[in-house]
Amino acid sequence: MIYKVLKKQNIGKSCIVCGNKNELGLKSDFYELENGELVCVCNTKDWHQSYPGRVHGGISAALLDETIGRAVSIGDDQVWGVTVSLELKYKKPVPTDEKIYVVGRITKENRKLFEGTGEIILSNGDIAATAHGKYMKMPIDMIAGEEFGSDEWFENPDDVEYIEIPDKK
Ligand SMILES: CCCCCCCCCCCCCC(=O)SCCNC(=O)CCNC(=O)[C@H](O)C(C)(C)COP(=O)(O)OP(=O)(O)OC[C@H]1O[C@@H](n2cnc3c(N)ncnc32)[C@H](O)[C@@H]1OP(=O)(O)O
């Protein structure tokens, strides 16, 4: 299905999931969609493997964690959180050297906590993993320190207006 992109989120410098200067990272892009969900798009690499050809389960967890954790900032980019708990179900192998999509959304939110769900969708539409995460809201200076600024967190614009996400099987 094709979704209109409302906004591309900022990226970090060194983050394992989104950092553009992390040579071993996933260099993921995050897009806020018209339906209120967030999609992460990235290309898995050989060095993200556990068994040959198969992405490490911890990498899948990191992708789902960040996608759900970022979904809370749709509409208010000053809301940040730290992960309190994260539960995954690994349903199919995530291949290395493949473009994948991670979709997340917030399911519950109050002043202190938020919860969300997400899934990794392979290019053929298979759902490879699902997750439920719980996060505690926290000001960014409490998470990352007073020095957190524009050299750590910045725009990474592109001209993507629509994203086609494989139909889930
Ligand atoms: C450059 C940027 C790069 C990338 C950025 C990407 C963007 C974002 C991506 C995000 C994705 C990546 C994100 C990451 O990778 S974050 C990295 C992984 N996570 C962490 O590091 C978190 C580590 N844990 C902690 O710091 C503490 O345990 C926290 C802060 C979570 C709680 O601390 P603490 O235990 O001291 O809490 P409190 O005593 O102050 O209690 C406060 C209140 O909270 C209630 N409570 C506590 N626990 C729970 C619970 N389990 N369920 C329900 N409620 C709970 C508690 O009852 C109390 O309520 P009340 O009694 O006041 O009513």
TrEMBL record:
It is an enzyme of class 3 (hydrolase). It catalyses: (5Z,8Z,11Z,14Z)-eicosatetraenoyl-CoA + H2O = (5Z,8Z,11Z,14Z)-eicosatetraenoate + CoA + H(+); decanoyl-CoA + H2O = decanoate + CoA + H(+); hexadecanoyl-CoA + H2O = hexadecanoate + CoA + H(+); octanoyl-CoA + H2O = octanoate + CoA + H(+). GO terms for cellular component: cytoplasm; membrane. Residues 53-125 form the Thioesterase domain. Its EC number is 3.1.2.2. It is found in: Cell projection, Ruffle membrane; Cytoplasm; Membrane. It is a peripheral membrane protein. SUPFAM superfamilies: Thioesterase/thiol ester dehydrase-isomerase. The keyword Coiled coil does not apply. It comes from the Bacteria. One of its GO terms (molecular function) is hydrolase activity. Keywords: Apoptosis, Cell membrane, Cell projection, Cytoplasm, Fatty acid metabolism, Hydrolase, Lipid metabolism, Membrane, Transit peptide. Its main location: membrane. Pfam families: 4HBT (PF03061). CDD domains: PaaI_thioesterase. GO terms for biological process: fatty acid metabolic process. Belongs to the THEM4/THEM5 thioesterase family. This is Acyl-coenzyme A thioesterase THEM4. It comes from Peptacetobacter hominis. The lineage of its organism: Bacteria, Bacillati, Bacillota, Clostridia, Peptostreptococcales.
